[in-house]
Amino acid sequence: MLCRVCDSTRLEPAVDLGEQPWCNHFLKAEEVGTEPMYPLRVVVCGDCRTAQLDYTVKKEIMFGDHTYLSGVTRSLSEHFRKIAMEVDQRFGGAGKKHKSVLDIGSNDGTQLKHFQALGYDVLGVESSKRTAYIANQAGVNTLNEFFNLELVRRLGRKFDVINAAGVFFHLEELHSVTDGIREGLADDGAFVVQFLYMKQIVENLAFDQIYHEHLLYYNLATIEVLLNRHGLAMFDAYVSPIHGGSVIGFVTHRGRRAPTERLNRLRAAEAEHQSNELETYLEFARRIERMKAENLAYLDEAKQLGKTIFGMGAPVKGNTLLNYFGIGKQYLDCLVEKNELRRGLFSPGQHLPIAIESELASPPDVYYVLAWNFKQEILANNRPLIEQGVEFFFPVNPKEVCV
């Protein structure tokens, strides 16, 4: 295998999470036990230092028809609203008659709805058939395709803003996509890239954010290698608490804008914390093992006390944790979800049934919270249950991040 970013052959093993199913394929009853397993291993490039998976599950399998919906979570929609406002204020151009935005991996159109409200001509590109249909039905113009250079050339137009939220680390066609962004971005345009911050993943011990859809795990130093290779450059960035710590990066054509002081501070912090060193990742793997032992000890004690335990949320990342820790029906009765598309399905690997939150007859004694990245929203929404004595246990507790 070659490095996904720089084509180096110097790839060092770092984190091995064993054989796992594709974690976003929630199973119908007749599919339980038939799901294929794939290696889930992180390697680190000895040249550009990018952390990445060494095995690719084909994009047509993972992104052709998934069940994830951006609009289900209120705090994510609010985050997208703030991003749209910030981008418009900084790059939209006061009084500009025509403003355009393209969203890569636009899902159900939640981000683009906020741009629509600000007067933008919007276009989404979404590979999932059902999800693209939902977006179009909601009035968000969406193409059901994979984004790449060939698509941009077919469109034959440029955009003031190109957005990629939670998708830029998914890309099997990484270099074609990045070329497409350069070609589709107006000369004075801004590419807004939102990605899980690997520095934060390591510090939070959020190893569950490693799964097959996430082919790459960027820090600033590593994503900049990719951008620069394709004639693009990051000129500003900050860390948002969304998803437990994400970079909101602002990119344009190389040489057009000087880097901001806050971007330089983030770069310096990475160097100071040795965030891109192999030993940092090897220690991360050792900490995951200690976390596993602690979590299983907690669940064992709860079951010995006769407590009922439900999983809170059925996020994709939760399946990485459940499968690696070996947490199945011996601990959890079900996974509780708001997303109606997952009604009647089962989790891949552990085969836990999905229950819809509004249809529960009674709460458990303990919620084992897999959707930990929405901790504040979950605690606020469930204040009455907490007052009744229901415990909410968070296996991952993200630290506060600087914004």
Give a description of the structure:
- The strands form 3 sheets. The protein has a 7-stranded mixed beta sheet with strand order 6-5-4-7-8-11-10, with helices on both faces. A 5-stranded parallel beta sheet has the order 14-13-12-15-16, with no helix packed on it.
- The protein has 403 residues and is α/β, with parallel strands linked by helices.
- The two termini are 36 Å apart.
- Strand 10 (232-240) and strand 11 (246-253) form a beta hairpin.
- It contains 13 helices and 16 strands.
- It has helices spanning 59-63, 74-92, 110-116, 129-137, 149-155, 174-184, 198-204, 220-229, 261-272, 278-304, 316-325, 375-381, 383-387, and strands spanning 11-21, 37-45, 51-53, 99-104, 120-125, 142-143, 159-165, 185-196, 216-217, 232-240, 246-253, 309-312, 335-337, 354-356, 366-369, 391-393.
- Helix content is 34%, strand content 23%.
Widest sheet: strand order? Answer: 6-5-4-7-8-11-10
Which CATH top level class of the largest domain fits?
A: Alpha Beta
CATH arch. level architecture of the largest domain: 3-Layer(aba) Sandwich
Provide the low-confidence segments as ranges.
none
- Give the structural class: alpha/beta
Q: What characteristic shape results from the CA principal axes?
A: globular
Mean pLDDT: 92
Give, in order, the helices and strands.
EEEHHEHEHEHEHEHEHEEHHEHEEEHHE
CATH topology of the largest domain: Rossmann fold
- For the termini, the CA-CA separation is 36 Å
Count of separate structural domains: 2
CATH superfamily descriptor of the largest domain: Vaccinia Virus protein VP39
Instruction: List the total number of helices.
Output: 13
The biggest sheet, with number of strands, parallel, antiparallel or mixed sense and barrel status, is: 7 strands, mixed
Radius of gyration from the CA trace?
Answer: 21 Å
